[in-house]
Design goal:
- By secondary structure, this protein is α+β, with helices and mostly antiparallel strands.
- It folds into 3 domains: 56 residues; 150 residues, Nucleotidyltransferase, domain 5, CATH 3.30.420; 57 residues, no CATH class.
- 39% of the residues lie in helices and 13% in strands.
- It has a 4-stranded antiparallel sheet, with no helix packed on it. It has a two-stranded parallel sheet with strand order 1-2.
- Helix 4 packs across helix 8.
- The radius of gyration is 21 Å and the shape is globular.
- The protein starts with 7 loop residues before the first helix and ends with a strand.
- 22% of the residues are buried.
């Protein structure tokens, strides 16, 4: 068995191909490719107007950001990485979960999530670096696997095109300029400076992208509840399901097939697309063929 990775462009081309065949209802097709109906219709419209060229990524700038969720999550990660460049994904998970909102003293990530709800968007767009992505299959990292299990799907920009994530790059520039240049003499002083920046950025400073409102004025606790336990994904009955072992592989047709250490002890779903050819899913994300 051999693996073939799937790029964003590959996924869009395959989506259009299946759409043109007309075998599936549109909402079923969108479910298979883990995209919203709005995104699916956008791809179809671009294809009909420009052909395959229309499926390339475009630089976009959001008109609004209802609760600043993406920016707050990325802000937390950037601040943690600046303070602790050696930290790995596990420590960063707790930083992400807590966001940057004033909270009473609480001891665990689970406490925060239970209090605030699942404070996360449906998708998070990031660059291609650690901890968001890796060189593993589908560029999955420990962090992105955790996101997917929470129902948050990672979306990476094209390498070398930071403009595709312009609002985050702009926030990074502001954070570095105002809170790290020059750095403080010790971590405690640096934390105080981050705290001042956080309050100004979220509570005091109006944002043009928010119609000159502050992120804090638009924030609301998430209506999504946080599961007490992350259950394994329930694949459709026609899928073949394999569990990735602790040594990062699966058994397939009496052969051992290496997969990825980031998916150790997780379950993958295999859907036969053609005779002997399977689409491979982790939850609802197509990760290979």
């Amino acid at each position: 068995m051999s693996w073939q990775g799937v790029t964003v462009m590959d996924q869009r081309i395959r989506f259009i191909g299946e759409y043109l065949k007309g075998y599936f209802l549109f909402n079923e097709l969108c479910f298979q490719f883990s995209v919203s109906r709005k995104t699916g219709y956008k791809w179809v419209q671009r294809y009909e107007e420009q052909g395959l060229d229309g499926l390339n990524n475009r630089s976009t700038r959001p008109h609004n950001c209802p609760n600043g969720t993406d920016a707050a999550i990325i802000e937390a990660i950037v601040a943690a990485r600046l303070k602790h460049p050696s930290w790995g994904p596990k420590k960063l998970l707790q930083i992400i979960s807590s966001r940057y909102k004033e909270l009473p003293a609480i001891s665990t990530t689970a406490d925060i999530l239970r209090r605030q709800g699942l404070i996360a968007p449906q998708r998070i767009r990031t660059d291609n670096g650690v901890p968001f992505a890796s060189n593993a299959i589908a560029r999955l990292s420990t962090l992105s696997v955790w996101w997917i299990k929470l129902g948050i799907y990672p979306e990476q920009i094209e390498p070398g095109k930071p403009q595709q994530n312009g609002k985050h790059e702009r926030m990074h520039r502001t954070l570095k300029k105002e809170a790290t240049i020059p750095p403080e003499k010790d971590l405690r002083a640096q934390q105080r400076r981050f705290d001042v920046f956080r309050k100004d950025y979220n509570n005091d400073r109006p944002h043009e992208a928010l119609d000159m409102k502050t992120p804090a004025s638009l924030y609301a606790s998430s209506p999504r509840t946080t599961p007490k336990k992350l259950e394994h994904f329930d694949y459709p009955s026609h899928f073949e399901v394999r569990r990735v072992s602790r040594n990062s592989g699966i058994r397939w047709r009496n052969e051992y097939v290496p997969v990825s250490s980031t998916l150790s002890e997780e379950y993958l779903g295999f859907e036969e697309a053609e005779d002997g050819i399977y689409n491979v899913y982790f939850c609802e994300l197509l990760i290979g063929i």
